Amino acid sequence: MADMSAFFTDNTLSLALREKTKSIHDRTDHKIMSMGIFSSLDGYRIFLLSQYVFLRDMTNIYENEMLRNLLPDLETRNRFPWVEADMRDLGLAAPMAHRGNVIPFNPSVAVGWLYVAEGSKLGANILSKMAMSLGLTESFGARHLAPAPEGRGLSWKTFKAAIDSADLDRAMCVSAAEEAFARFSSCLDQMAALNSEEIFSASQNERVSL
């Protein structure tokens, strides 16, 4: 515990999050690639539905007034509306919107989840190019993978500067970030369990219960 406290004391929150979640981050990236998510439109639909479920449960975080004091542009960072637009482009109906108590609200917990969601926008630079090979673009089907107006790099630097200057429980942030990575991995598993016929049925306005 002493070593952990020293680590948090000697490093910024964003660096601590990067180092302490590296293992689960790498495993999540490997899962996406090993599943062949971007090798076909069916695979991409699995990814898009997973994004829907993951970001759906984060909506309240992006709308939280307290967190807007930390990140004034927080609400505009929310990609959930673009995920919904991408789903409409591809004729996918939303999975049944059962909201579990996935994220008990606490500023430190919220920032841990935000770290995962905001950080994934950097990797979206590569994913966006892979989506293009499937005939998708940043204005059709892959809107949520587009960069922020100010660019991916500046958006990420602004986010890191904000959380590094905030008074947060760093251990709690790391734990929440690990939970967020695990949650997205679980979303991928749930969506991959649906076969192509079930996904097609969902696109015909039937509902998939999660």
TrEMBL record:
What the entry lists under InterPro entries is as follows:
Haem_Oase-like (IPR016053), Haem_Oase-like_multi-hlx (IPR016084)
**Quick one: a GO biological-process term for this protein?**
heme oxidation
What domain of life does the native source organism fall in? Bacteria
GO terms (molecular function) for this protein are: heme oxygenase (decyclizing) activity
Name it. Answer: Heme oxygenase
